[in-house]
Amino acid sequence: MWFKNLQIYRVPAGWTMTAEALEEQLARKRFVPCGSQDQETRGWLSPTGDEFLVHRVGGQWLIALGLEQKLLPSSVVKQEAEERAEALAEQQGYKPGRKQMKDLREQVLQELLPRAFTRRRKVFAWIDPTGGWLGIDAPSQARAEDVLEVLRQTLDTLPLALVRTELSPTSAMADWLAGGEAPAGFTIDQDCELRSVTEDKAAVRYVRHPLEGDEVRGHLTAGKLPTRLALTFDDRVSFVLTEKFEIKRLDFLDVVKENLDQQGAEDARALFDAGFALMTGELQRLLPAVVGALGGELKGGDAPAAAGGVAFATEAASDAPF
What we know:
Structural class: alpha+beta
């Protein structure tokens, strides 16, 4: 059980949800496969394949959203409807009107849906009720929104907020690159993306390339700002930090996974639990460290500040509950 990406949200202090209450509320919307006329269905699955929707290890919770979608391209429906419209035109002596075409498309859709292939996927979310974190293993905020939307539909209350820091990730990453030094506890790796703030959006990407020296600084001086930067924390976890405070390409290094081998888990369930415990333990250290490297969490309605005189534009995060 190792997350590859992390979309991060804050659970405010005072959220009184218990694991038992969460289990009960998630059960309102258990996953049910698509019926013959369903194009998509979403609901909660057991993360471990048993009857429980909330998996608990050491005070940390794991939930999983199941999504199933019928693979029926609109172009296929359109083509079949047009072919039937041509045959209908020959029979009635005139082309079908707008309402007839709409009815034809609906008829084709209803006939083809039961025979369409389905695609199923599972999205995991980690909840740290003590530390106040919700992390979704999704490569983008749009994918994470699938989980948040169903959570909003399922739970009585979900007062989540985006993480807001004193320094924007863009500003902080620019300072680290300009100074050639990462914040305490971190090292700068060899992947980076710099993008111009001008209309042309010119971008430079470095992959497995040293980032110290005048070349990268020259791009910063020319007005390009970092949108992605690869970092390693405490020689234990490597990741890519993005301008939107996303954690991507999350990789728990050998020194962490060696601990898993030492656990001596005898079955798949024990191995799963040991991996989840190790992962969440590392994330409980990593996330506060990243927030600290960005100047700490923003208080009140203050706006993020630029560091080192580097100008940047940042999208304000909403504090409104989801």
